[in-house]
Amino acid sequence: MRKLLLPLLLAAGCQVAIAQKTDKKLEKLLGEALQGFNGESGIYVHDLNHNRVAAIRADSLSPTASMVKMTILTGIMDKIHRGELDYHQQLVYKDSLLYAGSDILGSFKSDEKIELSKVIMLMLTTSDNTASLWLQSLAGGGTRINAILDSIGFTATRVNSRTPGREANRQQYGWAQTSPREMAGLMEKIVQHQLVSDSLSERMLRLLGRNYWDEEAISVIPSDVFVASKNGAVDASRSEVLFVNGRGRRYIFCICTHNNKDTSWVPGNEAWVLTRKISKLVWDYYGK
User: Fold this and answer.
1) Which range is the signal sequence, renumbered to this chain (predicted)?
2) Can you list the domains of the chain with their CATH numbers?
3) Which end of the chain is flanked by fewer CB atoms within 10 Å, N or C?
4) What pTM was computed for the model?
């Protein structure tokens, strides 16, 4: 399983080998912005224009919540790349796939047909959990997705739910776990076309550019700027990863928070306020 994505990574090896420089000024600003937050947090930012990074507890583990859907997308696109699935193939929905909640796909009647492409769209755009668990299964399950992550050098990011041997991790982190560095790294590999073919990489980026949940980190980015993103939220954890490209700025930013004291679901939730604050700080910083 370690050979799943290796050829493409070797082809992109020249990009991986370039040394990154630390932006100490930005790190200082980020550290100051995090002071007083009632929870645990980690941040990773990569300025792609100048290959400079800023990291605050970037290797700390956090629940992914719905950011796990980027790993599921990776597994699905690998299957499509191999010809084992077709992006436009028809699938048949069954009631047994239902994940209780307010998802769109869960409102389907059993035996209704839907294209794979639309199930992927629902997973990423509206963060539909019924669609996501169906796609996790179609991707080969959590074990196969974890093998793909391992093959690209990710050791912190793992799918836990419905994955044999990951029960203890699921108790601690929920559906999946990651670090700010690795979740930003996964986004970067999509941007740099290092996972699958160029055409499928571009499709992944377009899909991630249609996020319905745009009221946190995305909200401070001007609407004429391209943003690919995925966010995740459970009671005590709120996280988000972005690729921002426009107005001379080109960067990837990930913030993960967990063990948060504020578990409310209102716009003024402390972690969401922090996310908007940090996102604006990074956007403004690269505009100077």
Assistant:
1) 1-19
2) 6-286 (3.40.710.10)
3) C
4) 0.93
